[in-house]
Specification:
Elements (H helix, E strand, L loop, with lengths): L5 E6 L4 H13 L3 E4 L10 H13 L5 E6 L3 H7 L7 E3 L3 H9 L5 E5 L5 H13 L9 H13 L2
Parallel strand pairs: 1-2, 1-3, 3-5, 4-5
Helix pairs in contact: 1-5, 2-3, 4-5
Length: 153
């Protein structure tokens, strides 16, 4: 493994079983993992978990995040509300790779009602092993996103 990451993992009740498998999988890849919950199958507000993980990454306490809910959409929208965060929904390995390589995303989101656990593991592996390519074709786009965000603060 090229790099060991501090990875924040979280979900709502819809993705609880997927999250449990994901934690073991990401640890098995050699990364440090913190479970941000939910810690049982009881209903919660997924934005709270997404905000907490996104904030922890924005503050530099974690390097990457894996967020799951029923579709992966709600946690992506929520995480993207935190300044400096780029969360990308990915239900295939190409999207997971491009989220990192082209978009410098720090968080990948997935839906437990959309894909199975085994595919989620492969997507997370791809996301965590891909790296942003600074200075490439995507750099002006990333710079524009960052500038827009700074202008609105």
């Amino acid at each position: 493994m090229a790099e060991q990451w501090r990875v924040a993992v979280g979900c709502d009740e819809a993705a609880y079983e997927m999250k449990q498998a994901m934690i073991d999988h990401v640890r098995g890849l050699g990364h440090e993992v913190k479970d941000f919950g939910t810690h049982d199958g009881k209903p919660i507000l997924y934005p709270d978990v997404a905000f907490e993980i996104a904030q922890a990454i924005a503050e530099g306490r974690f390097d990457r995040g894996v967020l799951m809910c029923g579709t992966g959409i709600g946690v992506a929208i929520s995480a993207n509300k935190v300044a400096g965060i780029r969360a990308a929904q990915a239900h295939d390995t190409y999207s997971a790779e491009r989220a990192r390589k082209s978009n410098d995303a720090q968080i990948v989101t997935m839906g437990a009602r959309v894909i199975g656990v085994e595919l989620a593991k492969v997507i997370a592996t791809t996301f965590l092993s891909s790296e942003y390519e600074p200075g490439g074709r995507s750099q002006p786009k990333i710079d524009r996103i960052d500038a827009y965000e700074r202008e609105r603060r």
